[in-house]
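re: ur msg from earlier - yeah i can do the 2'-O-acetyl adenosine-5-diphosphoribose complex, just paste it... oh wait u already did. ok heres what im feeding in:
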Amino acid sequence: NLFEKAARLIKQSRKTIVLTGAGISTESGIPDFRSPGRGLWENLDPMEVLSTGVLYNFPEEFYKVGFKILSSMRNAEPNEAHYILSEMEKEGIIFGVITQNIDNLHQKAGSKNVFEVHGNTREGSCLRCGKKVSFEVLEEKVSKKQIPPRCDDCNGVLRPDVVLFGDPMPYAFDLAVKEVKSSDLLIVIGSSLAVSPVNFLPDTVRHLIIINATETPYDYKADVVIREKASYALRNIW
Ligand code: OAD
Ligand code: ZN
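and the outut:
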């Protein structure tokens, strides 16, 4: 069966790396971006709401809509899928996790080698002077109705350090590209593989496993495609 086939590939692989997307966290109660009827997002377009265009030109709007969605992820807890990946890393079965998620759940589950290629919701920074602040500072200022929140040093607008549409990719992405190139197996979990440049990663590796509830544009390239929930699939492979 498919689980056995996936397990065999993982066993035979010298170096395996995992790429996760929003679909691994839906079982933790965080809606993804592109499933039908996508909860929080309803008729909002993430490419617009979470963009530098909105942040720079309509910072109040950014804080009233996009920022709220980011902030709401911070109370979530990891699910079985996150825990199994953390265990697999501990046992040396996978090298680490490249994640497009900004919900911190891989780290909360104990994963150590995490490449956050779309930033995180632990930190923020000043658009004018670059000063680093914690995400809590942004939340405190917003809750005190300072919208947009401003830098204590220079009064510039503060931003969360997530990668918005229009932002360059962070250094973590360069590292991730290198790790994928030196791996012989990539396991994609819970990503529609619709967003560039992350969706080029499956092109740069020899073997590919895709675990995703719905079809992806890379299914035809994969050695194994498992169209199941992430936790169920990982439990069976494990
Ligand atoms: P998407 O929402 O595009 O894709 C999530 C995929 O997970 C969908 O194809 C779902 O079918 C699948 N899925 C949902 N629940 C699942 C489950 N329990 N088990 C398995 N699969 C499940 O999310 P991403 O691919 O992560 O970027 O989106 C990529 C980027 O687009 C995000 O990082 C974000 C967004 O705009 C930025 O914010 C920069
Ligand atoms: Zn500043």
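cool cool. The chain has a mean pLDDT of 95. ping me if u need the other ligands too
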